[in-house]
Fold this protein.
Amino acid sequence: MSGKIIYAWIPGLPHLLRPELSDGYKSLASAASEVGREFTKLGVKRVLYYSTQWLSVLGQSVQTRPNVKGLHVDENWYDIASLPFDFHVDQVLAKKLILASEGAGFQVRGVNYEGFPVDTGTIVANKLINSANLATGMYSSCVYSDYQETIKIGRLAKSVAESMDGVTAMVAVSGLSGRYFTTEIDFREDHIRDPKDNEWNQKLLGAMDSGDWVAVNNMREQFCRECKADVGLKALAFLEGAGACGAGKKLQTKAYGAIYGTGAAVMLGV
């Protein structure tokens, strides 16, 4: 059995659930919804989220509770949007992710308890792209796993997806440049805080759009230094390991903009 994989990169801040606040938010949210419609066209059966906002400390974590639901309040953006959630977790996917992680030598544990605080990024992304209520999986972003180790996690996720029937969407939930405004702004005037961050974001996106992965790899470390990149671009490491960044592959930008000064993009790779 060799299941097919497609890839997406989705911003995970709740501003996108309030598209009326800014034309930029509206553009990003619309592009994310279009990615969800593309999933339907391509016959996606399940979505595996790797969100850089689900941070784990004691190794890797995998969501295993069959139905995870509740109401999340974001610690920073609690006044932007309510975040109710209701996830149906693919049990086979979760079990295989744990077994594959153990086989690769990772310390991993399944998470299964009522009221688990699903992170803002996963909730936002799921609301934007998963209107079809597809089965889901969630793999944490361990703070002690560096870029190379995260590539290995992407690889094991790829091996699991290929062992399952149907199409799996690997969705990285993260941002680009990470320089937030530190004072209150008018959302209608939101923009990339530093012009140099904007230049770097567009340079990176251009290379991913064209599938120039050598250029992406060559600029990655400097990008992280110059732009205070979100969690060291570990979302890209996950997608790289999962096969999104190989020869002939592209991550095409569907929308790019600012969220409170930071860089945000919606990307799709098939």
Summary: The chain has one domain: 4-269. The CA atoms of residues 109 and 222 lie 34 Å apart. The beta strands are 4-10, 44-56, 60-63, 67-72, 83-88, 108-111, 135-142, 167-173, 252-259, 262-269.
